[in-house]
Amino acid sequence: MRVPIFVGRRAARRPPQRVIRKSHLSPARRWLVERMQQLAYGRIEHLAIVNGEPVVVPPPRAYKEHRLTGPNLQGRQPDHADFFLKPQVVDLFEACDRIGNGTVAVLEVRDGLPYKFSLEDC
Q1: What dihedral do alpha carbons 39, 65, 122, 30 form, nearest 10°?
Q2: Helical packing angle, 87-99 and 27-39, nearest 10°
Q3: Residue range 54-67: average pLDDT?
Q4: 9-42 pLDDT, tens digit each
Q5: Distance from first CA to last CA of the chain, Å, rounded?
Q6: To pair with 102 at 20 to 30 A between CA atoms, which of 7, 10, 42, 121?
Q7: CB within 8 A of 47, min separation 6: which ones?
Q8: What are the φ/ψ torsions at residue 97 (nearest 5 degrees)?
Q9: Opening angle at CA 91, ends 87 and 95, nearest 5
Q10: CA distances from 36 to 62, 87, 109 (A)
């Protein structure tokens, strides 16, 4: 079934997104969601993926971006409450499932959400 999404005056169609709550995630995936919220803007490097799960011990390196002009937005405190995941987060974890075993060389984070990532090419 297709769900209409209203864009301007016309309805666009897109496939329904799986609805996932934070509480449904494994501890490693919850950690990654909270780390991205703390980071707000920046990147996470050398994130190992084993059997589709991020390896967070030891934690991957994270780099926070700071602007030289204008305000620097502070990262949010990790939201320990349960909530529905945004489509970008669901897409990231679906990509982890497809990767299976590998390393995300760089995961770019914007506004506390995954924006894009690069895989190490072996």
Answers
A1: 0
A2: 130
A3: 92
A4: 444 555 545 678 999 999 999 999 999 999 999 9
A5: 39
A6: 42
A7: 32, 54, 55, 60, 103, 104, 107
A8: -60, -40
A9: 175
A10: 9, 14, 7
DSSP 52-94: TEE--SSPPEEEE---SSSPPPPPPPP--S--BPPHHHHHHHH
3-state helix vs strand vs coil in the chain, percent to 5: 25, 35, 40
Give the tens place of pLDDT for each residue, 66-86: 878 777 666 566 666 888 899
Angstrom distances, CA of residue 28 to CA of 12, 25, 69, 120: 35, 8, 35, 21
Side chain identity at residue 85, one-letter code: L
Token digits of residue 46: 């050398």
- How far is it, in rounded angstroms, from Cα 88 to Cα 100? 19
